[in-house]
Sequence to fold (193 residues):
Amino acid sequence: MQSNHSNQRLAWAITGSGHFLRESLAVLQTLEKIDVFLSKAAAEIIKQYGFQAALDATGHKVYQDKTASSVPVELFYAGKYHTLVIAPATSNTVAKMAYGFSDSLVTNLYAQAGKTRVPSIIFACDTVPETGQSSIESVAPRDNIVQVFPRQIDLDNVQKLASFEHTQIVETIELLQHAVFKRLAEHHSKESV
Fold:
């Protein structure tokens, strides 16, 4: 049974990347009517980076990857969500999704969103923006800055995933924020029809 548009929410999945985690949580804090889904690695890394309080402060309902069959994905079949955001998305998650694996909560969410034609916005953190640079700066635990050099296979997997239907890849936090707000505006306009 499908939900009407006014009851639909945005689903936001977080994977185990520290890269752009703080910034992704900052965008998440500005939003309402969100359900948050944490991979096992995300639950660990949020604590490791000291961001548990920031996540709790959002007031959003949080689902964790604790079941073998990823039980929360059934919410997509009930029509509860109008959009799936995966931010930040690790190279591991991107590779799995690009090759059709759905063996975790987050990869299952992506698969079910696609099967129910729910648009997905994915912030792939192992990319190099169009700046001509071959590396990106990333914040490691304890605020250490490290240079990250995405591998060619990581870049190829992002490109492969970008070709999937109902999938939008964003490569910067600004593009993530723009894509999310645009999608929310589109959904809001459907509600008012």
